[in-house]
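Worked example

This section walks through a single chain of length 184. The input is the sequence exactly as stored; nothing has been trimmed or padded.
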Amino acid sequence: NNVFKISDVDSTSLLDGFTIRNGDATANGTSYPLNSGGGILMQGGTDYIKLRNLIVERCNGDNNGSGIYLRGAKTILENLVIQNNFKGGIELSAGGAHAILRDVLITNNGSKPGIFIYDTGIEIYNSEISNNDYGGIVYSGVGTSPNIFVNVLFLNNGNATNSSNFGGAINFSIQGADVAINNC
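Given that input, the structure is written out below as tokens.
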């Protein structure tokens, strides 16, 4: 099942210092969004909870965020390693989702991109997105601002041979968002 299910918490909340491993949200069948975010599922009314010093690895789930899935949730991720998840690392999916990432490593996630963003925005600072077979970041739908990428290393993303592979560092297929990319 989902290792952590988080909803209706505010910015005074903190999840710190865990290794989250082998969560399997597919155990929830087709029940959306419970079938997403095998490591961490954040939904509804979550207002900038802080996640710090976590390792999220070898998790499974439907959609694009096996490690962490945000639906209608806002979060600050600091000093995280999101690696070796089966269907992508992180997904931000509409409904007011937003994430601020600082010092985050997103690496070796399979079958989906390292980060998938749909109808929302993201900020990433001093981080690395590397070795994700289906691309670093895939961004689709209607984008919202801010979208900021500062000091982000994109390395060796998109090596899978699959027709649905977007590949590369960032694949934008959005409308309506401002994007700032500096020192990447």
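What to look for: The two ends are 36 Å apart (CA to CA).
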